[in-house]
Automatic annotation (TrEMBL):
<dbReference type="InterPro" id="IPR029068">
    <property type="entry name" value="Glyas_Bleomycin-R_OHBP_Dase"/>
</dbReference>
<keyword id="KW-0560">Oxidoreductase</keyword>
<dbReference type="InterPro" id="IPR037523">
    <property type="entry name" value="VOC_core"/>
</dbReference>
<protein>
    <submittedName>
        <fullName>Catechol 2,3-dioxygenase</fullName>
    </submittedName>
</protein>
<dbReference type="InterPro" id="IPR018146">
    <property type="entry name" value="Glyoxalase_1_CS"/>
</dbReference>
<keyword id="KW-0479">Metal-binding</keyword>
<dbReference type="Pfam" id="PF00903">
    <property type="entry name" value="Glyoxalase"/>
</dbReference>
<dbReference type="InterPro" id="IPR004360">
    <property type="entry name" value="Glyas_Fos-R_dOase_dom"/>
</dbReference>
<dbReference type="GO" id="GO:0004462">
    <property type="term" value="F:lactoylglutathione lyase activity"/>
</dbReference>
<dbReference type="GO" id="GO:0051213">
    <property type="term" value="F:dioxygenase activity"/>
</dbReference>
<keyword id="KW-0223">Dioxygenase</keyword>
<feature type="domain" description="VOC">
    <location>
        <begin position="20"/>
        <end position="148"/>
    </location>
</feature>
<dbReference type="GO" id="GO:0046872">
    <property type="term" value="F:metal ion binding"/>
</dbReference>
Length: 169
């Protein structure tokens, strides 16, 4: 289990302040019912679906966006269909949430800060829309730290960007 950091960290570095939550991924039992709820009732726009085949034959992950300044985001919410016998998260439907940093420099400094404080990091990758790294909080929730690439890198092909093969950093 990761150590909880206090004001007495093992580094003279300081954590970087994020801009906020970037997106949330939910594990769902019925992707069609969840689609109707989030798109038809709450108004999220379906902006893309994963084109990678699921090894278990489950439907692809679906990505949804709200609007900011009348523009779609690559995704604010993703829905992942789970198998019928699903208990991957001990009953929780949260797959992970992502915290966004305002600049690549701030994201990099945050990773250096966490590394200096012996926090285990995994999956440091460049995706079609973000640079990201994963870690677990004290309750074992998956937390993704992201720097979002400039809008020009993904805005004209959101689905293509979401399906770009991740590259290790």
């Amino acid at each position: 289990m990761p150590e909880i950091m206090t004001s007495e960290t093992r580094s003279d570095q300081r954590p970087q302040t994020p801009c906020g939550i970037n997106h949330i991924v939910l594990a769902v039992r019925d992707i069609e019912a969840s689609h109707r709820f989030y798109a038809d009732l709450l108004g999220f726009v379906h902006v893309g679906s994963s084109s990678r085949p699921d090894p278990g034959g489950l439907p692809p992950t679906r990505f949804y966006s709200g609007r900011r300044d009348q523009k779609l985001h690559h995704h604010d919410l993703a829905l992942e269909q789970q198998a019928e016998d699903w208990d991957r998260h001990g009953g929780s439907t949260l797959d992970h949430f992502a915290i966004e940093y305002p600049t690549l420099d701030a994201w990099t400094k945050q990773i250096e800060f966490l590394t200096a404080n012996d926090i285990a990091l995994s999956r440091r990758i460049k995706r079609g829309v973000t640079y990201s790294v994963h870690l677990r909080d004290p309750d074992s929730n998956i937390v993704e730290l992201v720097f979002e690439l400039p809008r020009s890198a993904w805005e004209n092909d959101i689905e293509g960007a979401l399906n770009r093969e991740p590259v290790a950093l």
